User: Fold this.
Amino acid sequence: MNIKDKITFFYYWEETLWDDQVDANKYFATLSILFAAIVGALTGGGNTLKSMFNLETEMSLYASLGLCVFIWGYNVAESIVATTNAKTAFLRSLLMLFCIAVAYGLGHLLAVVVIVVVTVILVLLVGWGVLKAALGGSSSGGKTYLVDKDGNKEEVTRGLIGTDLVDKQGHSYQDNGNGTATEIG
Amino acid sequence: MDEYNYSMQTAGDVSFTADNKADTMEHAPSPESEYKPKAIQTVAALLMAIPSLFMIIFPFIYFNYLIDGYEENAMERFRLFLTLSELLIAIGFALLIPVACNKAVKVATISLMCLIIFEECLHVAIFNHILQMSEAVGYIVDILIQLGYIYLFALIINNCSLSTTNRSWINLICVVYAMVVLHHTILWQESFNDAVDLDILQKEDDFLFSSLYTYFWYLLRILMIVTYWNFARCEAFNGQYDKDYKCNFLPLNKWMAMAVIAPFVTGVALYLYYKILSITLQ
Assistant:
């Protein structure tokens, strides 16, 4: 499918719906629907970025919906001149309203979902990195030892949390994070 | 043997159908396949498309107007640009007059040229304070001019056999002019703003529509380039003047109906949308 087919998909779809009763412009309806989707995406994405990161990307939801109504008005006009009878013009106008509303909603929703998913992935990646650092290289296969005041060295294993240490006798220690550990209990 | 005969018969049928089709095409040439635009039409198309092309290539002309709109110089520069644009389109129409295919098309083309010059003279006179008219009169004159454009373009569509593609593009000109009626008359009036109590909805740069309207305006400009290109190169200006053609000058057609219904429906829809919104938000 080339770019020309992509920006005329509505035209080919409505040809199967109305047959020869509609003689509309090949590009206008499809471009209107795509534009409504972009307006939805920019509004949804902008407001999500504003609420999550306090960026100056806020866009008025009401104003963008008003713009969609205006775009629909262009398509009502096109429906009247491109159809052979009033009934088809009315039905096509309703279909365009539905398509523009769905495109706006989808664009809005997808933008929010994409931003949230990307943020969650980034947070998880950063969190995983921090966790790995907190584990102190245990994942690298190295061993951790505790050295007491007398210089006795004892091998310990890390617990699930990452900050608790357990020796072979079953004693638990709390990793203080500064190279020292305190026995618990 | 039977099978052989059958296939021969099928082949014959097919070739017979093809011959028939060729015959039909010879007697009634399809406008899309046979028609070739003249050089003068291409020149007119270029002249008509250039203003929209400039608006897109040099968006600062438009943005400067929006940003520095209250500075006198910016307004004057933009007015000069608009006047030159309209002049180019008028020259385009003038070039198309000698190649009009019948009386109705010729009358429509001459009228379009006169109307565009008249509209521009009016705007320049108002801009330079030579002519002053009340807001209401200004809006009524503007509505009448837009309706005039739609009637004249509809006259061309109705009085010659255009290809489906060209017809759909010229329809788009009528659609844009019809929405200009709404845009320049109802939506930007104070009364509309008061009626829907827009103060509640105001947010930074947003007026009635989102600031994204600018991009829709650019989309329309791109479509207008193609529209004027197809209009000037359409079958209505094939140069073969038909004296005996029975012209239909009646304004009662679906284009004029559209010019009334579409802005009205959209205006009512926008009014209801903002009214319900302002009541809900209070």
In short: The first helix of chain B runs from residue 2 to 27. Residues 1-29 of chain B have pLDDT under 50 and may be disordered. Residues 37-281 of chain B form one domain.
